[in-house]
């Protein structure tokens, strides 16, 4: 049996808003894989060669730190930070400088944590 990672589903209050944010950050189009279902929105497709992001409306608010997050590689860490902030996300203020690169902990518009990573080549 062959298993394949096809995506990540993120619980949220506003699926359309988060799909728009992540579509812009990742340069992957939002799709209509869930049709007109108002509680769902998707970036990418299960038929793509990379995993899709699906956003699912839930009633309960986010409380505390999520125990899984996305790492997004950028060419320029400061330009990546500005893009996130322009799109409605924010920087946590946490930055880690390593020999191999820089990591900044960010938050999307609904406060989900993710990291921008710039690797030194």
UniProtKB/TrEMBL annotation:
Domain of life where this protein originates: Bacteria
Gene3D superfamilies: 2,3-Dihydroxybiphenyl 1,2-Dioxygenase, domain 1 (3.10.180.10)
A Pfam family: Glyoxalase_6
Span of domain VOC: 4-119
UniProt xrefs under PANTHER family: CONSERVED PROTEIN, HYPOTHETICAL FUSION PROTEIN
Name this polypeptide is given: VOC family protein
Native species: Nocardia aurantiaca
